[in-house]
């Protein structure tokens, strides 16, 4: 009996040991990390020349791999530059690195379309430039609301540049140059945008005049023959020339030289005789004599008239001296009156500036006048406790936000106090603060002018619902 029980006890003991090993926390480390799986999946499709040093056998030490930076066993930076990667950027690989902040694959030979990157919810910098990517602008990038740096330059991306790029309000660096983009330029107006280039594409139409795009020069838009507008100093609809193209003057056909053609239309031409030559010479000489005689008579008549004009001009000069003196006096009087009118206008202008004028904050360019602002088309954006906010589109296509303050709420605030507050607020600059560009006050009317932000209100973002669930906001 004892001999039979010993094998059974041994088997139970072995099963107990195996179960304890499997159930232990350390056994979880034997499974490869999802980040390591994502990196290996990317390598299998992108590294056709075996230049990456990723290894399946060393997947538990993926944080030590080439170009990988981790924080608490999660990949936060992936820099794979100048490695001659010649495959494709496969979907469902790097997009699973949900803690990734920086991704750089620049200066490789990756081809094909850019995959869905919406899983990179914490991505702040994306460098895919100097590759051979094709297809259209990846729409998944528009969902990366924390993105600050985006470089897709020097690829073969086609199609339009989406206007939704204006919703990426943290965008600091944007380069889309030297691709094959077509269509129009989107009205980007991020106050944080400091680096921008769309040169070397096939873009057409007028460049929108926004506060953000006005900061960049001609080089940011060059090599787009179809672009026009105020920013690049190119008229969009050139006027036709006042004078049309002149018609070419058709020279008459050369006359046939006498004697060179023996027959013209079957009629034989005879050679001129010597008598005809003599008769022609006499006629020419007589005509020349008549012309000389007529010319002499005309010269004599003109000399007589000139002498009479001299005598009359002496009397006219004496009489004109008085008239000239009177004209000079009249001109001096007109200049004095004009100068007086200008002084009056200056005084009136100073009074207008004191009573009510559009005042731009320190360092701001005066891109529009009060008259343009008043003539702009307005759209109601919302109402608050101290005023109403409008979206104003000026005649030069510049879009601004105008906040009209409630006169009743600010009745106790003096003009001097209001101006001091506006000068203080106008000097504030921060990436998360919409800058005050200008303000206006006259009697009971007070307006504040800001950059237009196309992303909606904070209330709409907090309470927005998409597909039955609230939208996740990354702060």
TrEMBL record:
It is found in: Membrane. Its main location: membrane. GO terms for molecular function: ATP binding; protein kinase activity. Residues 1-23 form the signal peptide. Keywords: Kinase, Leucine-rich repeat, Membrane, Receptor, Repeat, Signal, Transferase, Transmembrane, Transmembrane helix. The chain crosses the membrane at residues 281-304. This is Probable inactive receptor kinase At5g67200. It comes from Herrania umbratica.
